[in-house]
Amino acid sequence: MKKEETYPRSFSHIGITVPNIKEAVKFYSEVMGWYTIMAPSTVKKESDTAIGQMCIDVFGEDWEQFEIAHLSTSDGIGIELFSFPHGIKETPEFNPFSTGLFHFCVQDPNIENLVDKIVSAGGKQRMPIREYYPNDKPYKMCYVQDPFGIVFEIYTHSYELTYSSGAYQN
Q1: Are 41 and 65 in contact (CB under 8 A)?
Q2: Which of 29, 119, 165, 170 has a 20 to 30 Å separation from 58 between CA atoms?
Q3: What tens digit of pLDDT does each residue of 111-125 get?
Q4: In this predicted model, what pLDDT tens digit does every residue of 65-96 receive, in sequence order?
Q5: Could you give the strand order of the β-sheet that contains 65-72, starting from the edge strand earlier in sequence?
Q6: From CA 121, how far away is CA 146, in angstroms rounded?
Q7: Per UniProt, what is one GO molecular function of this protein (predicted)?
Q8: Residue pair 123/144 in contact by the 8 Å Cβ criterion
Q9: Residues 167, 161: contact at Cβ < 8 Å?
Q10: What is the pTM of this model?
Q11: How far apart are CA 141 and CA 83, in angstroms?
């Protein structure tokens, strides 16, 4: 048996289910500044198209159609928004202790401004803005949620800088 090389894979995109696709595209493009790559469109359950068959493979047979939109961050990470007509439209329960996706994180050096924009657009600030290393490094973070109840985090600096021991050492 040939040993396969392990190497770091890049992050391509994240899929988020929202109750209203048009409101979500508006929030994520106007507040987060993400680019709309594909405006909201409808996907129908049809086995004679490639996208229809792929969606049947993923979602099974218990659906007829849904809406989808594609956005992108400034560094090319995709945001795939889904809205299902018969999906649950209530805010998901925040439960970081259960197995599953807990949150995603975005980066903005002006964390205070972004938190204010999120709150002004109907989202919530879940905690005070905190410094990771007070008096040592200028790194801040904050958990927020969008108007649809999806929790995410904001960092002021990159993941590598935040957790590397050599950055900003005295």
Answers
A1: no
A2: 29
A3: 999 999 999 999 999
A4: 999 999 999 999 999 999 999 888 888 888 99
A5: 13-17, 78-83, 65-72, 35-44
A6: 8
A7: lyase activity
A8: yes
A9: yes
A10: 0.89
A11: 29
